[in-house]
Specification:
Elements (H helix, E strand, L loop, with lengths): L3 H19 L3 H22 L3 H10 L7 E10 L2 E7 L5 E2 L2 E3 L6 H13 L1 E13 L13 E13 L7 E7 L14 H12 L6 E2 L1
Parallel strand pairs: 1-6, 5-8
Antiparallel strand pairs: 1-2, 1-4, 2-3, 2-7, 5-6
Helix pairs in contact: 1-2, 2-3
Length: 206
């Protein structure tokens, strides 16, 4: 679980965003704006984040606050799982990223796998929907995130790194590389291998 201060700071940010979406009274707008500043201050002081950068990010958020959606493609070749090495931190993860507006879940995950790995796939089953805050991801993220893991059938293509990835490889469970904790955890990978072996399992969710 995330620390209590971060849970509270994200809650304050969501309240501030929702308030600024609907408030008409100038005094209410000032109060919600200050609440947003307090959320940024808390994250900066406790989490070592940049306060001005956080405020800039929060200011760009408009409308009712909802969880962000991170999709991850789960692609097996025999008993090997497809992973990509992230350029940002040099560590490995499942291909994926933020879902875009006007995309279905199926379209989003197939696009992400193609863009980051060069492989063509078909999305066939949702394996898990996890609350990022409950799975020990590091570093912390200033918004609430749902991570959706989707089994994808390998159709074709070839390993091709992208603007965001430097390597593309398949790995067995016993030969995993160093994982990117911001994106995927060892426990999540273990669970995905278990789903691969037990194909009739229902989807996991928090």
């Amino acid at each position: 679980m995330e620390p209590r201060w971060l849970i509270r700071a994200k809650e304050l940010q969501a309240i501030a965003q929702n308030g600024l979406t609907y408030a008409k009274d100038q005094y209410d707008i000032e109060r919600y704006t200050r609440l947003r500043e307090i959320a940024a201050e808390m994250m900066a002081e406790q989490g070592g984040m940049d306060e001005n950068a956080l405020l800039s990010i929060f200011t760009r958020e408009e409308g009712y606050a909802t969880p962000k959606v991170d999709v991850r493609g789960v692609v097996f070749r025999g008993d090997e799982l497809l992973l990509v090495r992230e350029k940002e931190d040099g560590l490995w993860t499942l291909p994926g990223g933020w879902a875009d507006p006007n995309e279905s879940l199926r379209e989003a995950v197939v696009r992400e796998v193609w863009e980051e790995s060069g492989f063509e796939t078909e999305a066939v089953k949702v394996l898990a929907i996890f609350d990022r805050a409950r799975h020990g991801h590091r570093p912390f993220y200033p918004f609430h995130v749902y991570k959706i893991f989707v089994m994808c059938e390998l159709l074709g293509g070839k390993a091709t790194p992208s603007m965001e990835t430097t390597e593309v490889e398949f790995f067995t469970r016993d030969n995993l590389p160093s994982l990117s904790p911001a994106r995927v955890t060892v426990n999540q990978i273990d669970r995905l291998f278990y789903h691969h072996i037990h194909a009739d399992l229902p989807a996991d969710f928090d």
